[in-house]
Protein backbone atom coordinates (compact mmCIF):
# COMPACT_ATOMS: atom_id res chain seq x y z
CA UNK A 1 0.00 0.00 0.00
CA UNK A 2 1.34 3.27 -0.93
CA UNK A 3 0.74 6.43 0.94
CA UNK A 4 0.13 9.58 -0.97
CA UNK A 5 2.06 12.43 0.38
CA UNK A 6 1.68 15.97 -0.81
CA UNK A 7 4.70 17.45 -2.40
CA UNK A 8 6.27 20.42 -0.83
CA UNK A 9 5.54 22.32 -3.98
CA UNK A 10 1.77 21.80 -3.92
CA UNK A 11 -0.53 24.66 -2.76
CA UNK A 12 -2.22 22.35 -0.23
CA UNK A 13 0.94 21.89 1.70
CA UNK A 14 0.60 25.33 3.40
CA UNK A 15 -2.90 24.65 4.82
CA UNK A 16 -2.91 23.98 8.51
CA UNK A 17 -5.51 21.89 10.17
CA UNK A 18 -7.46 23.49 13.02
CA UNK A 19 -6.31 22.57 16.43
CA UNK A 20 -8.59 21.26 19.11
CA UNK A 21 -8.34 24.50 21.15
CA UNK A 22 -9.81 26.69 18.37
CA UNK A 23 -12.74 24.29 17.77
CA UNK A 24 -13.51 24.15 21.47
CA UNK A 25 -13.56 27.97 21.76
CA UNK A 26 -15.99 28.30 18.83
CA UNK A 27 -18.31 25.65 20.30
CA UNK A 28 -18.22 27.33 23.72
CA UNK A 29 -19.08 30.70 22.17
CA UNK A 30 -21.96 29.04 20.30
CA UNK A 31 -23.22 27.51 23.55
CA UNK A 32 -22.94 30.87 25.33
CA UNK A 33 -24.82 32.64 22.53
CA UNK A 34 -27.49 29.95 22.54
CA UNK A 35 -27.87 30.29 26.31
CA UNK A 36 -28.20 34.10 26.06
CA UNK A 37 -30.95 33.81 23.42
CA UNK A 38 -32.82 30.68 24.53
CA UNK A 39 -32.75 31.14 28.31
CA UNK A 40 -34.90 34.34 28.39
CA UNK A 41 -37.46 32.74 26.07
CA UNK A 42 -37.76 29.67 28.27
CA UNK A 43 -37.93 31.83 31.40
CA UNK A 44 -40.70 33.93 29.82
CA UNK A 45 -42.72 30.85 28.93
CA UNK A 46 -42.36 29.45 32.43
CA UNK A 47 -43.08 32.73 34.24
CA UNK A 48 -45.96 33.96 32.13
CA UNK A 49 -47.41 30.56 31.16
CA UNK A 50 -48.51 31.74 27.75
CA UNK A 51 -52.06 30.76 26.95
CA UNK A 52 -53.47 30.60 23.50
CA UNK A 53 -55.66 33.56 22.54
CA UNK A 54 -59.24 32.47 21.96
CA UNK A 55 -61.42 35.42 20.89
CA UNK A 56 -65.18 35.36 21.16
CA UNK A 57 -66.86 34.14 18.00
CA UNK A 58 -68.20 36.80 15.67
CA UNK A 59 -72.00 37.08 16.02
CA UNK A 60 -72.84 36.67 12.35
CA UNK A 61 -76.52 36.18 13.18
CA UNK A 62 -76.63 39.87 14.18
CA UNK A 63 -75.86 40.89 10.60
CA UNK A 64 -79.01 39.21 9.29
CA UNK A 65 -81.38 41.35 11.40
CA UNK A 66 -82.86 44.54 10.06
CA UNK A 67 -81.35 47.76 11.47
CA UNK A 68 -83.30 49.66 14.09
CA UNK A 69 -84.56 53.04 12.92
CA UNK A 70 -84.02 55.80 15.45
CA UNK A 71 -85.50 59.20 14.64
CA UNK A 72 -83.13 62.15 14.82
CA UNK A 73 -85.63 64.16 16.80
CA UNK A 74 -88.28 63.05 19.24
CA UNK A 75 -91.41 65.02 18.40
CA UNK A 76 -92.79 64.52 21.93
CA UNK A 77 -89.60 65.55 23.71
CA UNK A 78 -90.56 69.18 24.29
CA UNK A 79 -94.26 68.52 24.72
CA UNK A 80 -95.42 70.57 27.70
CA UNK A 81 -92.04 72.37 28.05
CA UNK A 82 -91.81 76.13 28.47
CA UNK A 83 -89.11 78.05 26.61
CA UNK A 84 -87.15 80.54 28.72
CA UNK A 85 -85.38 83.61 27.39
CA UNK A 86 -86.36 83.26 23.74
CA UNK A 87 -84.53 85.98 21.84
CA UNK A 88 -82.54 87.05 24.91
CA UNK A 89 -80.19 84.08 25.31
CA UNK A 90 -77.93 83.91 22.25
CA UNK A 91 -76.88 80.28 21.65
CA UNK A 92 -76.38 79.24 25.29
CA UNK A 93 -73.68 76.60 25.72
CA UNK A 94 -74.17 75.59 29.34
CA UNK A 95 -76.01 76.58 32.49
CA UNK A 96 -75.65 76.35 36.23
CA UNK A 97 -78.47 76.51 38.77
CA UNK A 98 -77.93 78.13 42.16
CA UNK A 99 -80.40 76.45 44.54
CA UNK A 100 -79.86 79.06 47.28
CA UNK A 101 -80.88 82.05 45.19
CA UNK A 102 -83.02 80.24 42.61
CA UNK A 103 -81.04 81.86 39.79
CA UNK A 104 -79.91 80.20 36.58
CA UNK A 105 -76.62 81.30 35.01
CA UNK A 106 -76.24 80.69 31.27
CA UNK A 107 -73.08 81.13 29.22
CA UNK A 108 -73.80 82.50 25.74
CA UNK A 109 -71.77 82.46 22.55
CA UNK A 110 -71.26 86.25 22.59
CA UNK A 111 -69.27 86.07 25.86
CA UNK A 112 -72.09 87.10 28.20
CA UNK A 113 -72.99 85.18 31.31
CA UNK A 114 -76.70 85.83 31.65
CA UNK A 115 -78.49 85.62 34.97
CA UNK A 116 -82.05 84.29 34.67
CA UNK A 117 -84.61 84.41 37.43
CA UNK A 118 -87.68 82.25 36.90
CA UNK A 119 -90.67 83.04 39.05
CA UNK A 120 -93.97 81.20 38.64
CA UNK A 121 -93.74 80.47 34.90
CA UNK A 122 -91.37 80.91 31.98
CA UNK A 123 -93.31 83.96 30.82
CA UNK A 124 -92.34 85.74 34.06
CA UNK A 125 -88.60 84.99 33.62
CA UNK A 126 -86.23 87.93 33.80
CA UNK A 127 -82.98 87.68 31.79
CA UNK A 128 -80.20 90.13 32.56
CA UNK A 129 -76.62 90.53 31.37
CA UNK A 130 -74.48 89.64 34.39
CA UNK A 131 -70.79 89.44 33.27
CA UNK A 132 -69.07 89.47 29.91
CA UNK A 133 -65.98 87.24 29.95
CA UNK A 134 -64.56 88.71 26.77
CA UNK A 135 -64.26 85.20 25.40
CA UNK A 136 -66.60 82.30 24.79
CA UNK A 137 -67.93 80.52 27.89
CA UNK A 138 -68.34 76.83 27.19
CA UNK A 139 -69.15 75.36 30.61
CA UNK A 140 -70.43 76.59 33.97
CA UNK A 141 -70.44 75.02 37.42
CA UNK A 142 -71.00 76.28 40.95
CA UNK A 143 -67.88 76.11 43.10
CA UNK A 144 -67.59 75.36 46.81
CA UNK A 145 -66.59 78.89 47.79
CA UNK A 146 -69.73 80.72 46.65
CA UNK A 147 -68.32 81.25 43.16
CA UNK A 148 -69.15 80.39 39.56
CA UNK A 149 -66.45 78.53 37.64
CA UNK A 150 -66.49 79.21 33.91
CA UNK A 151 -64.62 77.17 31.31
CA UNK A 152 -63.92 79.75 28.62
CA UNK A 153 -62.52 78.91 25.18
CA UNK A 154 -60.33 82.02 25.14
CA UNK A 155 -59.65 82.75 28.84
CA UNK A 156 -59.18 79.22 30.21
CA UNK A 157 -60.98 78.87 33.58
CA UNK A 158 -62.50 81.95 35.21
CA UNK A 159 -63.81 82.10 38.77
CA UNK A 160 -66.40 84.76 39.59
CA UNK A 161 -67.92 85.33 43.05
CA UNK A 162 -71.69 85.03 43.26
CA UNK A 163 -73.41 87.93 44.97
CA UNK A 164 -76.14 86.37 47.05
UniProtKB/TrEMBL annotation:
Domain of life where this protein originates: Eukaryota
GO molecular function annotation: hydrolase activity
Biased composition, class Basic and acidic residues, residue ranges: 1-10
InterPro entries, A to Z: 6-blade_b-propeller_TolB-like
Membrane-spanning parts: 30-48
Pfam families linked to this entry: SSL_N
Key words, A-Z: Membrane, Transmembrane, Transmembrane helix
Keyword Transmembrane carried by entry: yes
GO cellular component, one term: endomembrane system
Annotated segments matching region Disordered: 1-23
Protein name: Strictosidine synthase conserved region domain-containing protein
Organism the protein comes from: Camellia sinensis
Organism phylogeny: Eukaryota, Viridiplantae, Streptophyta, Embryophyta, Tracheophyta
